[in-house]
Input
Amino acid sequence: MKYICCLLVFLAMIVSVEGISQAKVRKLSTTINHPSLNLYAPYISTDANAIVFLSDNADDNALTPFFSFRENADWKEPQVLPKIINTRLNFLRGYGLSASGNILYFSTMKSPGVGGFDICFSEWRGAWAAPVNF
Output
């Protein structure tokens, strides 16, 4: 009987710790995760306030990179990356964000480059700045 009580106390402690330690599953809002849109290769900043992803929701139905920022608990309407960044010379699976979400990293064949695909970055200053080659 003593062992059963100890076992029950031990199991209750494990269950309570598991229940406390699990993070709640949160879905992206329908502003971004819309059921009728095709979204690919999402990248969320470490602070979870910026996202970049690919979608075929552009005018020509081609895969196009979009970005969005979160204000308070709501995501802004996703915007297409500007033409200074979004060119046909970019590798479409190569987008990433800094931890704070204010620097966008991507690979491109745009010149001037060292050769082949180069890694470039663009800084958010109210709009994406001109890309700089590492």
Notes: The helical segments are 2-21. The CA atoms of residues 16 and 125 lie 45 Å apart. The beta strands are 39-44, 50-55, 64-71, 74-75, 79-80, 96-97, 103-108, 118-123, 132-133. The chain is about 15% helix and 30% strand.
